[in-house]
Specification:
Elements lengths: L1 E5 L2 E5 L8 H42 L1
Antiparallel strand pairs: 1-2
Length: about 60
């Protein structure tokens, strides 16, 4: 069993293709974590944009 520690994530891998080295598994995990981080950042930007848009809309509706 291989145990991998990356940032705050800890995972145990019980079965690995024998063609994958531990370095390759770590590289795959790093790429997945990077994609997860990018997705979270995107969602945060979308939510921030929604708050700005809602605030502007509320301001415009208040002027009417």
């Amino acid at each position: 069993m291989t145990e991998i520690h990356i940032n705050e994530f800890v995972s145990s891998i019980r079965a690995v293709d024998p063609m994958l080295s531990p370095q390759m598994v770590e590289r795959i995990v790093c790429e997945v974590l990077k994609a997860v981080d990018e997705r979270q950042e995107y969602r945060q930007r979308v939510n921030a944009e929604r708050r700005v848009t809602s605030g502007v809309r509320d301001e415009l509706e208040g002027e009417s």
